[in-house]
Each structure stands twice: as structure tokens, then as C-alpha cells.
Amino acid sequence: MSTVDILSEDERFIVGTVRDFVDKDVRPVVQELEHANTYPEALIERMKGLGVFGLAVPEEYGGNPVSTPCYVLITEELARGWMSLAGAMGGHTVVAKLLLHFGTEQQKRRYLPKMATGEVRATMALTEPAGGSDLQALRTIARRDGDGYVINGAKTWITNSRRSQLIALLCKTDPDAEPAHKGISILLVEHGPGLTVSRDLPKLGYKGVESCELSFDDYRASADAVLGGAEGSGFAQMMKGLETGRLQVAARALGVGRAALEDSLAYAQERETFGKPIWQHQSIGNYLADMATSLSAARQLTLHAAREADAGRRVDMEAGMAKLFASETAMRIALDAVRIHGGYGYSTEFDVERYFRDAPLMIVGEGTNEIQRNVIARQLVKRGGLDA
User: Fold this and answer.
1) Most exposed residue of 44, 238, 258, 282, measured as fewest CB within 10 angstroms of its CB?
2) Domain named Acyl-CoA dehydrogenase/oxidase C-terminal: which ranges (predicted)?
3) What does the alpha-carbon distance between residue 124 and residue 368 come to, in Å, rounded to a whole number?
4) Average pLDDT over residues 131-145
5) Domain count within the chain
6) Band of the pLDDT at 3, cuts 50, 70, 90?
7) DSSP character string of 149-182
8) Which residues are tagged catalytic?
9) How far apart are CA 106 and CA 24, in angstroms?
10) Is residue 126 within 8 Å of residue 170, measured between CB atoms?
11) Would you place residue 388 in the very low, low, confident or very high pLDDT band (cuts 50, 70, 90)?
12) What is the average per-residue pLDDT within 330-352?
């Protein structure tokens, strides 16, 4: 099924507009910004103007809502230009979805209009220094104190944490609850006394956009900071949010894989050895064929999960499959791109080395692929196999 069949005319226009932005504004400057590890403030401002930060916000709150398949394809286009740009809006969209599905009307009206314009940018804070995948073992504690909460703990690998005005913090409001997930809540917190960005984490790739550690030291949050006012519901809420998050990571992988394939295809037609373009050598032609086939399969998996999400179905298995397959595919394509480019693939003068450094993030981010396999297996047993 082509994107013409999936998207409305307005959505195709939006995807095309983002594609043009990537080609005209992003690709000419990405090498310089990425190698200098410079935050892309000007590009983020352009993304605000394009409405990228309001894609999950309803019109009544000032947003520009699109279908989930459209969101996937927009994310792919951004990641094709620079994966860091797609990452800059990933957590923001998940928080918007969390507010939309679970927030009180007061919380929605406080945050969503400014999130739609990008005036307020949001991120999630799940991972901790002592662990990431086992969310029920959280050590960040929010203890009730008078008319609010006092929060102590630390989070790590938090994207955009310095530049996000809103943080959806997963923490324990009842450390003694049994089972443990019943004591977990999401608190909507903002920068203030007791919250510090303790350090920036050095990274292999995913440059420009910062990933930081956050420290909470007697940080005070009001009682109405609990998402939806539903203390103890945070684990279930975040599991729903991560369905969107994993689709977003899958779409990022599609973008990186597509950029690596497109660069390799162009290079294989320009570069000649033994009197002919290298794509005509069977080994290189086979690489290109396998790259394209795997990327097409990954896109179909991701779009299928996106359509199922819009149909109102639970998609933890489908999103897990998409994230698993797309990220592993992006990693293989990035490596094959280096092979096709030969020595130039190892040079920082070409983009393929960046794809090779960016691709592993999607394998370990938003739940490692080992965790995705656990989710898929558990759902297979629960559902009695795959639907026909």
C-alpha cells in the first residue's frame, strides 16, 4: 500500500513540506552541526513553524493533528535528514499523547496549547542510573507532604532535558505497594528549585540534542501534578505512551536506513571499478537489493502498527515488532553502506559514518530489543498466536 492510499491530501502535503525542509535546510548543514555537537536551535525554530510539535495535539488546543501513519512518515523524513531532529520531537509527542489520553482538563489546557506551538517542549524521564528496562524497580520517590509531593532521586539519558519546560516524571508515590507497579505515578514537573541537570552524557552518535542526567533533591511538586489525578496509575499510563514512543523510534530507524540506502545507491552509480559502475558488480548489487527489501518490510510493519493504533487497538506487540525489526534493519543497512562506500565510508567527510553511529540508539532506546522480544513473546501467548 502506497502513502497515497494511506494519507489524506492534506497529510501528503505536510509530509512533502517536511521533506523539502530536510532537503533544503537540514542536509546542507547537518555535517557541520553534528561534528561540532551543536544544538540545532535554528532548525528547531523552523520545525516549530512547520507545526511539527503539534502533530499529536487536537485542534481545540491549537494543534495540527495527523494520523499515526502520517506521524510515522514525518518522523522518517526528519530522521532521513538528521536523526537528532526526530529525537527532539519524539518524547514531546509521547507526553502530548499522555496528556490527551489521561490528563485532567486543567492539565490539558495548561500545557497542550503551548506544546502545540513548541513554546513548551516536553520530554519523558523514565530511565535511572541503576536501570532502565525494569521500570517497576524505580528508585525515584515522590512522598506526599502536605498539599504536594517531595521528590528525590535521579534520572538518566533524558533527551532535551535542559531545553524541555515540561517533564513527565515516572516515579514511586507508594514505595511499599504490592505489586510494585501499583505504586508508580507520572508527575508533570517543570524546572525549579531542587531539580538540576547534573551532567551531559557523552555519546557515540545522536549528537546536537543533549542527553542528560537529572537530579531531584527535595524537589516540591503540587498535588495536581499527578497525571490525570490518578496516583498509582503511572505504569499503565506509560505503557500506553510507549506504544507511540516505539513507533517513533521505528520511524527514526526507517529514516536512518533510508538515508544510508539513498546515499549508497547514488554512490554505487557514480563510483566505477574495473570499467563499470560498482552496482553492476554482483556483490554490491546484492547489498542494495537486500537493503531495499528489508527497508520496505520494516516500513510496512511500522505502518501496520500505526494503522492498528488509529483503529483503537492495543499495539504493544505490533509496535514492539516494528521497533525491533526496523532498528535491526537500520543497523544492517548502515553497515552495508560503509561496505559499499569502502574507505570513504570510514571518513567523516561522508554521511554514512554518521548513520553507522546513530543506528545503534534505536536498538537500545525506548526499551531494548531484548525487551521487545519479551513483549512480543508474552503477547503471542496471551493472544494465542498471530492473527491471520
Assistant:
1) 282
2) 232-380
3) 17
4) 86
5) 3
6) low
7) EEEEEEEEEEETTTT-SEEEEEEES-TT-SSGGG
8) 366
9) 40
10) yes
11) low
12) 97
